[in-house]
Amino acid sequence: MASTASTSAPVAHNAVPPPVVPSAGRSSRIAPHSHIKGLGLTPEGNAPPDASGGFIGQTNAREACGVIVDLIKSRKFSGRALLLVGAPGTGKTALALAVSHELGAKVPFCPIVGSEVYSTEVKKTEVLAEAFRRAIGLRIKETKEVYEGEVTELTPTESENPLSGYGKTVSHVVVGLKTVKGTKQLRLDPSIYEAILKEKIVVGDVVYVEANTGAVKRVGRSDAYASSYDLESETYVPLPKGDVHKRKELVQDVTLGDLDAANARPQGGQDIMSVMGSLVKSGRTEVTDKLRREVNKVVKGYVDQGVAEVVPGVVFIDEVHMLDIECFTYLNALLESPMAPTVIFATNRGNSLVRGTTDIVSPHGVPVDLLDRCMIVKTDAYTREQVGKVVQLRANVEGLRLGPGVLERLAAEGEKSSLRYALQLLTPAAILAGLSGRTTIEAEDISEMGELFLDAKTSAGLIGEGGGFLGGR
Ligand SMILES: Nc1ncnc2c1ncn2[C@@H]1O[C@H](COP(=O)(O)OP(=O)(O)OP(=O)(O)O)[C@@H](O)[C@H]1O
Ligand SMILES: [Mg+2]
């Protein structure tokens, strides 16, 4: 007996929504760094030149980052900073992302770009402070009364809407749960049905419902269903043991930033976020220092009771030279605060003016007092061979086939101008090949691309020859 929402009649706002069809496959958008899966280090921490993690060369920088990852994992690098420096396109951003992969999903990683601090609505220092809060995780363990099991039945029961006369509303939902030991049928409130739809729960999923709050969480798909063909990467979990109704230790990962935000706008949610809702009932809409201190106090209480554990994560500030002197001064203070995460900076500038000053020239555009707190790691330029390998990796990720000589051509282009230029020629060349009815990119496509799209040096050179036509009319 499945839901039978009528689609033609006007529908009350809380009528049964149409059944959720699980999406057939994840759209495969390919981001510039999607070939990077990690630092690709050996267990001893050495960097083989051709890594499985998608990283080519850059052995020094990778090993250095490996050490930092170990330090972060053993929580010995909080409040310290790593500065990645190197020419454009040498893999600094990629390295930082690899570090985040290595740390795993449980360690918060908060990436921002230097220029993000310049907002007209939020103070520069606020942006930084928030990023730092988002990089401090809190793992909360609670024992709660739950109903857990594999969903055997999911039946919303409708009744006439007493208010409008049109359409139907869900009066309750019947959920059947099965464990190794037994089964149970629950009659749940319609608000829980909304949560069930939101979590995209279908028959065969293993879920638990918190008895007190009614919060529903999907644990995964029951492995009884593991043989069916699933395109998406599913997590299969065994049928839960014990009774359906039981006490269970739940672990939740949140960041201090999440707690700040949830408590600045208390809405009375269902989970841990609103535990602190009782703290601030005034409906504040801004995260103030006072609120942060209050949240800290509660968090400290949790930690002292052994309910929660602080997990310091990483703030990654790309293009750090875009920050100005006020931000840098504030960063010094943030780094010295007791609950500071690890900070990774990246920049491609050499000696340059510190933003916001007129006369302070400093290495990487970062004031010396902050530089002093950083460990500096340099990324090297790539050889032709290495460019070739990265191009090949990208071609694999993008599903492109390269004809004879193409890799050599691109590698040569990359060595002459930059790795990015070589990578950027790849996709349009594939389109060109497609237009000529081929599935493989040939050397001629690359030549044609090279004529259509210039690299920076050539383009600047042309402008120079033309008598600087950008300047004078
Ligand atoms: N060693 C490498 N192995 C594999 N891919 C790489 C490597 N280095 C860079 N790449 C890829 O090359 C491209 C450019 O690298 P990235 O964006 O990390 O450069 P960057 O150093 O951050 O440059 P910028 O200073 O301009 O920000 C990205 O697509 C990146 O994934
Ligand atoms: Mg970058």
UniProtKB/TrEMBL annotation:
Q: Give the catalytic activity.
A: ATP + H2O = ADP + phosphate + H(+)
- Please tell me which top-level EC class this enzyme sits in: hydrolase
Q: Which UniProt keywords apply?
A: Activator, ATP-binding, Chromatin regulator, DNA damage, DNA repair, Helicase, Hydrolase, Nucleotide-binding, Nucleus, Transcription, Transcription regulation
EC number(s) reported in the record: 3.6.4.12
One biological process GO term for this chain?
chromatin organization
Question: AAA+ ATPase domain: which residues?
Answer: 78-368
Q: Where is this region: Disordered?
A: 1-29, 35-54
An MF annotation (GO) of this entry? DNA helicase activity
Q: Where are the transmembrane segments?
A: none
Query: What compartments host this protein?
Result: Nucleus
Q: Does the keyword Cell membrane apply?
A: no
- GO cellular component labels: nucleus
Q: Does the keyword Transcription regulation apply?
A: yes
User: Which family, according to the similarity comment?
Assistant: Belongs to the RuvB family.
What function is annotated for this protein?
A: DNA helicase participates in several chromatin remodeling complexes, including the SWR1 and the INO80 complexes.
Per its record, how is this protein called by name? RuvB-like helicase
